[in-house]
Design goal:
17% strand, 8-stranded parallel β-barrel, Aldolase_TIM, globular, Transaldolase_AS, TIM Barrel
Length: 226
């Protein structure tokens, strides 16, 4: 079970990777847009510098045709590093690009997945990760738990090396469900992780513990006891 940050904000990445057991960072054109017109490759390299080579960095192509996707992938690998997981939408053009990239031993994350067949085809094409869009599927009336469970079942039955990278979450409950359905990894906005640990009842419990301790020992902490 691995957590990734779905953001390109450098301050957020620095802050939350210091706190949480983060396994990597994901981005896409919509996430990049939030940062404004950045120096794209300098920014991606800075993310890599922050998280290190032991974590995964997922960067999405922007071309919509196979040849363009392959050129985007080559540029990403050359200008960032060859360990980047290149994100490719699972379309007709995208699945062809995934096949080609895997023949070149490129790390590939198949993204924009809304259906079982998209995921199955991406697995068969050799994708290292498949990213089903949890909240978006749910909004469309598609059962995301069933889709993810089907992916997990196929991985178990046929021995695919592909990992399920749950994406498109609006709250921690959806992340929980993705993991319970069989996703090995999940990427989310850092605010979802933060909210899970800052709920009012949690903070009240901590304050109550603090008050009870101080009622006996005052402001002396355990490390200060003689």
């Amino acid at each position: 079970m691995k957590y990734l940050l779905d953001t390109a904000n450098l301050d957020a990445i620095r802050y939350y990777t210091d706190i949480f057991p983060i396994a990597g960072v994901t981005s896409n054109p919509s996430i990049v847009k939030k940062e404004g017109k950045i120096d794209f490759f300098a920014h991606m390299n800075e993310i890599r510098s922050i998280i290190g080579m032991d974590k995964t960095l997922h960067i999405q192509v922007t071309a919509q045709d196979t040849d363009g996707m392959l050129r985007d992938a080559e540029t990403i690998l050359n200008k960032v590093d060859d360990q980047v997981c290149v994100k490719v939408p699972v379309t007709l053009e995208g699945i062809k690009a995934i096949k080609t990239l895997k023949k070149q031993d490129v790390n590939v994350t198949a993204t924009a997945i809304y259906s079982k067949q998209q995921g199955f085809l991406a697995m068969e094409a050799g994708a290292d990760y498949i990213a089903p869009y949890f909240n978006r599927m749910e909004n469309m009336g598609i059962d995301p738990d069933d889709v993810i469970a089907s992916f997990a079942e196929m991985i178990g039955l046929y021995g695919y090396h592909t990992q399920i990278l749950g994406a498109s979450f609006k709250n921690a409950g959806q992340v929980d469900r993705a993991f319970l359905a069989g996703a090995q990894t999940a990427t989310m906005d850092p605010s979802i992780l933060s909210a899970a640990l800052t709920q009012a009842h949690i903070l009240k419990a901590v304050d109550d513990f603090d008050a009870d301790w101080k009622s006996v020992y005052g402001d002396v902490t355990i490390s200060e006891l003689q």
